[in-house]
Each structure stands twice: as structure tokens, then as C-alpha cells.
Amino acid sequence: MNYAITNIINTHRLKWVSVFFLGICSLPVQALPQVKAQALDYEKPTSDVGGPRTCFWNRGPFSADPYINVAYPDANVFYWAATFTIPEGAKLQIDGEFAHARYQSLISYDEGGRPMDSVADYLVAPKLNNTNPYQAGADRQAEKRSYRIAVQTGMPPEIERGVMQRNVVRKSIYAPTYKKDQQLLIYRIYLPDEKTSITGGVPLPEPILTLSNGKTLKGQQACESLNVGQPLRIDPTALNIPAEQYVALRDQPDKPATWPASNPASWYIQYDREFLLSMYSGKKITAGRRSEGGFYPNLDNNYIRTIVNRKFGKVLVIRAKMPKVTKSFYGARQQQDADLRYWSICSNQSFANTRVTDCLFDEEVPLDAKGYYTIVVSREEDRPRNAKRQCGIAWLEMAADGDGLGDEDMAVVQIRNLLASPDFPHAVQKILKPGDEQSVMKEYFPKSRYMMPSMFEAVFPCI
Q: Structurally, how many domains does the chain consist of?
């Protein structure tokens, strides 16, 4: 079977569109120029849901359409999940190559979709005579880039999350068991380099299982012993909140039709699930565990979000200063330290269907001479004619059907700050309590106002 992935960069919007060619003949895997021919050796084509998978990473890819679009994925990120059970007395290791990408990680979760442990790329020691391209000053294009990390059963250590750690090396990730001893890992690849596949030009990592008798299993044999085909035993609310609960929160009789959106927009840091729902309930909630309230969130990210409603105006204009980020998309040679590893802004639908409409990542957002961005959020039909890169304006699409459950004017807009430098005082990670978002982020805080398309065209001339 012939299986190749071609990445197309849309000139309107830097984005991957993966085209899959399936043939009858048995030929070696083909890949893009500058991508190793063996890059997809472990990946199997499918005819139902597009994208590469393996026997271990058999759930995914999760991302924006046309991939599996749930749990608010970033449109420029690709996720794979593995559910398994390590046999008693056995040892599991994950063997792989560092992806050609902005970031990669392994994160474990419990049955509620709450993150338990995270091991980011730069924390993993490379194999002997190999390079970890995510460490400061490293060669991002190094050919020898292999690693191996152990998977432990048990609770992880308590460490600070979302901030770059110094002088720390992780040799293992903890994957606690939940219902019927199930364990769950998610493998993430953020922003693969422009000329690579969605796996970052390398194979998906492979499980290596050493049984209690010393026998080592790989590939399909390891998958069978790990029982990777077991049913997913998660809570019903891990991926979304029930539709009827969402509609009841949205359509409260004593609230305006725009509830809970405000003008100007109000931004909220992400804590636990109760705090997330308080955006709709209006209850005063004490801040819980940070970055836990979403749907399979990334512990290396901290988030702020706002509810948008176009009844205030057909376009939402957002302006702020862009943090300095680690640039990578166009194949930068050296890994550089920065304020953040990655920044993005996404337009999503409701908490009930948790779909992403689209995202913008840092390198594709035009900046003015002082480093500020201007982003317009609107439906495609309402897009101002000057909301384009040539005019210094970025455009973020809002879904035509709004929240996907009856309110065509509603969207959720979310900003990610990934792996903040401990020396950057204005990251979302530095917000210690709700209400301090603007005072901590200062010029990096997203200020916004609603407008009509013609008003925007008048106020922001394209020179």
C-alpha cells in the first residue's frame, strides 16, 4: 500500500492540509522532500478518520478539521492518545525521535480528563551521541535525535508546571491507574516545521515492554500485552459538559441574550472545572488547581479565555503586545530561549461540543513596529476587507453556527501561553488569583472592543 502525506501551506492562512494517497500496490513509504523516507514506518493509513496512527497511539490524530475535533485542540497542534495497562512486574519505555516542531510532550491523565503528569521535550535526556533539539542552543536540525523515557505507575511529584525548569532532567513520566487499572497518555506535537509531516518528520514513538521474566516486546506484541484495545473508561464529562447543562447555563431567565459575554470582553484564567463553569453560573469560586478545568488540558500551558457574542457587534477587535517566542516554523537552525515557547489564540465553539474553529500561532500574526498585534474575530461573511496580513491585521474565524447549539452569535476565544520563561513577569503563568489578569499581563493583556465591519475599515486604514 502506498501512503504519503503532502503538506500544503495555504497562502491565506498558514495551515496544514494533509492529503492522503491510498493505492493497492505495495511500495515503500513516500514523503516530502527533506523528510526521511522512513519517517512514517510505524504509521498505518486508514480510510475512516484521516491521519497516521499505530497500534499504541490508536486514538487520533486530534486537531482541527478534518481530524478528530474535540476537547478544544489547537488547530496547529496534533495529538495522539494511548490507553493501556502495564502488566504486573513489567516495565514500559517509550522509544522515539524528537520531532521537527516547536514543542512535543507526553502527559498522563485521569478518568476525568485532568492532567496528572507532564514531561516536556527539553526535560528528556537524548540517547548517547544524540541531540535533544529542544534544549537551549541546540541544533534543531540534528540528524541523530533519539530518546527513551520510562512510564511509571503511580502519582507524580509536585513540581511547578507551565514554567521552564532549570537543571532538571526527567527519566520517567507517571501514569496513574484509574478504572480497571487503565492508564492514559497523550502525545502532543505543536507546530511541526513547515516542510515536515504532522508527526514532525519522525515516526510516532514506539512502546518497549519488558515483562517480569525479562522478555522484551515491541510493536504489535507489546500492544497486545499492554491491552491497548481496551474500552475507554473515562467520565462522561471528560470531553465536554452535557448539552442540557450548557443550554441551562446559557439561557438563564434573568440574564441578557448576550450572557455571559460582556462589552468590553472579560478574560478569565483557567483553573478547575468548577471555576470554568462559573463563567456562566456567575458564582464566586475560589481558584482551584491551575489549568485543570478544560478538557484534557496541557500542564505546560496556561490559558485565558473570553466568551464572545456578536450581538455586541459583528467583529471583535483584539489588541495587545506579542511576547517573544521561540521561532521554528520555517526551519530555524538553533533553539533559542524566549518569553514563551509558543503562543496562540483560538476561536472555539461551546463547552458542550468543545470544537475548535481555527487558531492563529505567533509567527503568523503580523506585528507593528512596537511589537503589537491587532486581531479581528468574526464570521467569514463579516470579515473586514482590510483584515489581512498585507494591512498588518490578522483574522480569526468564528464558526457560522456559533456555539453549535442554537446561539449562532456566540464563540469562545482562548489564548495559550506555553512554557513561560521564569524571567518573564507578564505570562499567564504569573497570575496568582482571578481578577489580576490585566494587572499582571500589562501590555500583553488582550484589550478588545466590538465594531461593525465598515467601522473597522474606517478606523484601521490599509496604507
A: 2
